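I have been asked to look over a protein record a colleague put together. Alongside the sequence sits a line of tokens, each denoting a local backbone shape. Please read both lines and tell me whether the tokens look consistent with the sequence. I do not need a full report, just your reasoning and any doubts. I have pasted the whole thing underneath without changing anything.
>
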Amino acid sequence: MSRTAPPPRRPTIKEVAKLAGVSFKTVARVVNNEASVGPERREAVQKAMAMLNYAPNISARQLAGNRSYLMALLFDIGLDNFARAQTGAIRRCREAGYQLIVEEVPAGSETEVASRLYNSRVDGVIVLPPLSFHPPLLAALRERGLRYVLITPDAGDPAAPSVGLDDRLAAEQMTTFLIGLGHRDVGFISGGRHLASTYRRVGYRDALQKAGIAWRSELEAEGDFTFRSGEAAARQLLGQAVLPTAIFAANDGMALGVMAAAARLGFQIPEDLSVAGFDDMPYARLVWPELTTIRRPLREMAVAAVELLLAPEDNKPPEHLLVDFKLIERGSAAVKGPGK
């Protein structure tokens, strides 16, 4: 009769300490992400943990202090770039000895989700857009005293720490880029009333002003961050007597709608019309020509959010971090041709 092999023995904290050449208390400080360990010793401990495949015992750590070593990441199914944010948060949590709970928050479940996180004693919550400007969820988190960080927030909760980017400057740079390609009739499609969309519209107008180009209302249209709204807005902009030679949409979904509408109307991209978006979603490289866009680094933003939650709570004003964005040049935007 065959016997089941016993599970492999778990390495101990003392074995990690011996391999790293430090005390077991130093290993414990590294595991608990305490700042009192120097960079050289911290690196030695982390290497030893990796070599031994050492994983801290979460239950024991919970009993030893008032932390659960759990964090939560809340998302809405409509976020196209969710995988990047999840990857960043998981990796940073793992480095700090935390586990990450990932929760979708369908409409109407805000109170239920917040209560479940409260009962799990999570040490912090990362809230991704569009939930980061969803008042019912934020109210439910506040009511339960949960600590949270917002990624790309709207104006809904300025008292909470946040991680975002300079939407106004990014939109200004994209518009300036299109102007630099020779386009003076640059259309813009906003994303409705969200604060990020407002900043992007202001950045677009800033670039026109700095280039000495008069703003014209007929070159602006409004969408709602969806493909269909971008398609409809493009039909509006491309159905006028004076046509834009470039269109900058406030997100990639609407930019793809512009490309679809342009194709149906007989415009060649980028020969007849340059198109640019915002966010650098995965599908921005799946269309042809590939989409010129602003990269919103959600992976790095999630890492920064974890860092804010790892920092000790104090009475300082909440931090509002801005991460770097990048203008990604691809085939959908080109130099304005003669006669256009």
